[in-house]
Amino acid sequence: MPTLPNCPKCNSEYTYEDGSLLICPECAHEWSAEAETTVEEQKVIQDANGNILQDGDAVTVIKDLKVKGTSLVVKMGTKVKNIRLVDGDHDIDCKIEGFGPMKLKSEFVKKI
Which segments constitute the Protein YjdM C-terminal domain (predicted)? Predict the structure, then answer.
């Protein structure tokens, strides 16, 4: 009898199969059995020139960007250090000097 994996949420060893799903009776977490066997691909985030971005990179803004909800504008050529890549519509979390925390789209930056 094959052993089933522990629950990824609470690490319980009492998981069971229900059709194509694996279920944890302790925390009620359900996940696909096929997801366990496939290797998850990481999303590759590229800048405007096609260079691959990574956490901690420094980038430059390539276009004037209006800051939503204010009259401020992030000017073209603004340097942003120590970016963090995130999932979602805006790929980059960062702090811009003079503006504070920001979310940027990778299509509007280039890697330094």
Answer: 45-111
The encoded tokens of residue 88 equal 């979602």
Q: How many residues does the chain have?
A: 112
Gap between the Cα atoms of 92 and 84, Å rounded: 6
* Res. 37 pLDDT band, cuts 50 70 90: very low
DSSP bridge partners of 79 = 60
- Kindly report the pTM of this predicted structure: 0.61
In the block, tokens 């340097």 appear at 79
Helix runs in the chain, H state only:
33-37
How far apart, in Å, are the Cα atoms of 78 and each of 48, 49, 65, 95?
A: 15, 17, 10, 11
